[in-house]
Amino acid sequence: MNSSLEVLGKINSFQDAFISYGRADSKAFATKLYDRLLKEGRKVWFDQNDIPLGVDYQNQIDDGIEKADNFLFLIAPHSVNSPYCGKEIELALRRNKRIIPLLHVEQITEEIWQQRNPGRDLSEWETYKSKGLHSSFPNMHPVIGKINWVYFREGIDDFEKSFAGLLEIFTRHRDYVKQHTYFLAKALEWERNQKQSSYLLTGEERIQAENWLKIRFKDEQPPCEPTDLHCAFIGESTKNANNLMTHVFLSYSEKERAFMEKVANSLRRECFTVWTNLTDINSGTDFVEAIYRGLEEADNVVYLMSPASLASQYCQMELAHARTHKKRIIPVLIKEVELEQVPPELGAIQFITITDPEQEAQYHDAIAKLIKVLREDAAYHEQHKIVLAKALKWERQKRNPSILLRGYNLRQAEAWLKVAKQRTQNSSTPLQEEFIAESLKQPPDASLDVFIAYSRTDSDFARKLNETLQIQGKTTWFEQESIASGVDFQQEIQRGIEYANNFLFIISPNSVNSPDSAAQVEYAMSLNKRIVTVLYQEVDPATLHPGLAKVQWVDFRKHGGDFLTNFGELTRTLDTDPDYVRTHTRLLLKAKEWEQHGRDDGFLVRGKDLVASQQWLTQTTNREPAPTDLQLEYLAASRELPYRRVKRRTVMLTGLAVTALVFAGRFFGLMQPVELAAYDHLLRLRPNEPKDDRLVIVGVDVDSAEMIDRSDRYRLGRGTVPDLALSDTLKALNRHQPRLIGLDFIRDLSSLPELTQTFKDTTNLVAVCKGSGTNDRGQMKKGNKAPTNVPIERVGFANLQDDGGKFLRRHYLMAGADPDYCNTMNAFSLVLAQKYLEGKGIPYSSPFDPKEEDFVRHMQFGKTVIPPLWAPTSGNGSGYRDRGDQLGGYQAMLNYRIHQGDPEKFVPIVPLKDVLENRVPADLIRDRIVLIGLVDKAERQADYWNTPYGEVPGVVLHAQMISQLLSATLNGRPLIWWMPMGSETLWIFGWSVVGGFVVWWFRQPRFLAIAGVVSVVTLYGICYFVLAFPGGWLPLAPALIALIGTGAGVGCLNYYLRK
């Protein structure tokens, strides 16, 4: 700001100081002071050098005072008593100049008077003295007397010290004072040119002036105050920039005109724009219509209430119109009135009282209250005014759609309306609500017909042109209507140019020399906009921007300057090739949006729009405006769109998203049923294995049960197998030297002595107990104890962990002991396997740590590790999730051994009847683990379980579990294993990406189908092979879901991208 003012100051011959002095006393001193100031680099107005010959010296003096930052008054008797110096002081006061009095001569002596007046009588000296002409004090101007002086008395004061003090005053608030001078000069120029709008401030200069006017000095006096002319000039500049809208409409009686002007000046000083009938009604306009428009386009109505204004027809008309449009009315009582005379609408409003204008303190307090009220909810009332003015304009132009709100203005109005509807006073009018509703019905981001570029000095002509274009149904971008306060000015200008079909430039000397206008032309040319020029004022063609010079202008000076005749020629120009130009704008906007979003394919044209755009492109040869490079690139990309696909990164991100969803489903156990179903399916497809010759089952079948029932010997005793029958069976088996005998019966009842003794004698017998637990209905079920004479070391629990519905896939190896019923942690199968392998010299390592009271390591037989489904060291893998106590204890997966497609045929099963009748070969028993259990499904206590292969007796399941442990340890048969959760997630993500890239790569449906089938078969084959041979359980269902899901997702993205 300061640098720009300094440049302008040089151009306009601005001065740092004006020296006012009396020649008789101070000419020599003034000359000395002038020379010293020049040496200090100061510019000083001095009459000895600054009044050319042959000019009106008074005009030169006045101009010097007005264009000087400081008014230096040399106090001496001659200057104090000089009428010419008095005029200079008065002008400096009227212009509110910073006045710096310099005391030079306090008084002159008789000798000095006689030297200046030789031959004059001494009595004249006495008369001279009686008039106070010899001294600086009697006739001193009162304002000069109130200001601190700088002492330059010759022979008394130190000149250099005083001069340094003077320079310090110059420096103090220098920028503020220079702006005061500059804006005063501009205001005087405006005033002397009939206050034409072309002389008002515009652009950045206006904003700087508004900011300068707002400066206040705290804890110190201002160096100078703005004049009323300053305030009026800056206020009119603000008003002109805001399409003649104001902050305050002053309603008053003509009888209080002087007081109204005082209030108006006070408001202007506080940066409020004011509408009065004295300043805002142009000659030749309808008086009432002008008043109505002033009311409608003002934020507030300040009503100066007095008996005269209450009786004034015009004042009451103004108030009625303000109430109709729900304006904020602020009554200011300036003379006492009868309350009966006050309209009820005003009686409910708190008055601001200034009943004695001569009381300055009361006046200033009242003005302060008025300003406080005006600033309350100022933004709301400003928006109320803006929306009302546009709505009225829309209504008066027969609801012309070109006036409807768009873009930022519409969003702002919509937000304002929500607030307005909640207010009880000054709320929205029905017209405002209807206007906003109609605006919201318009398609968003619709293009505009015309962007109007102009210099603000040509605002009157530009406003008239904008008004007429809108009447003709043209949608326009006009700065004073289209830029809201607080938004990025340059960004909104460029946005307006982009959205306009035509760039209309008003040519005048000011516009062609404006940097802002040149920047707008450059931007319009960069977009290949159709440029239409209107010649408003004569210019030198050589000064035109090249982009404007090549365009034939519409000369509005022709036809005697008849506006409407020349406007018709402009309309014909604008209406040339409208469809072509609109398509140019539409495609430009789409191309810009495409570029702003990183050339995202989602912003390309498709279908019928693409066909129409291609047709337009074929018409662009030798036509204006030509397509831009960006438009050509945009259409080229759109042509390629049907053959395009999402980016590889998008495929990866889609795969990642699908994997995340699958992971979440697995984590919360939602996918466990489908994973187990897939596992069962693959399990059933595995090849057969040979029988396990380490085990044999003695089954209690139908024939055995009938034989026992018929035998007289076995009538005594209780249980599934009577005591004596069980005793005989154990004895018969032991005669053939089995390695171990496992009794898969619950025998918690008292036994006959013979059976009790047999239990005691059979040291290779392992019995079962059953711990307490809950059934499928959640009911508590008590456990069952082991036979009394079997030590706990040879007892294992018979509890099995199913997946609901007695469906068994898991091997329950260890669990917490039940002291009341089953005080062992080891499963029946684990005890038998452990003892068998001990006999082979293979050590056993328990995973349970008594100190920690938890499973802290893996179970191990020799070097063979039994992987748990859940343990702190291995985490949670496989298709099972640890929900509740589902994976409690130590569990592994049960790797069924299948022979001839049946899990019951992997070991020999001999009937109990054959054992009792001694018809079982000894080789079938010797050195084997013999399990005794029910195989009769019809038996009331039948123990059958569901498996992936169908129903299987419990004793066979125990045999499968024992065989699993023995085969893994002794033969290296694989146990079922799985990957950690992280590895499984990577596996799923890998297949997810495969599915995505299959769809991404193959475009033809036939090849896509083949690739999809190959992918699914490959996944299926890998999962089957790994399970069938190494025994690995890979997630088939989650991987398949991820593969299909990502493929479908990429397919949808490609579809939407192309459509």
TrEMBL record:
Domain of life: Bacteria
The keyword Glycosyltransferase is assigned to this record: no
Alphabetic keyword roster: Membrane, Transmembrane, Transmembrane helix
SUPFAM superfamilies: Toll/Interleukin receptor TIR domain
Protein known as: Putative transmembrane sensor domain protein
Transmembrane region(s): 975-1000, 1007-1027, 1033-1057
Keyword Transmembrane helix tagged: yes
PROSITE patterns: TIR (PS50104)
Boundaries of every TIR domain copy: 13-133, 244-392, 446-592
UniProt source species: Allocoleopsis franciscana PCC 7113
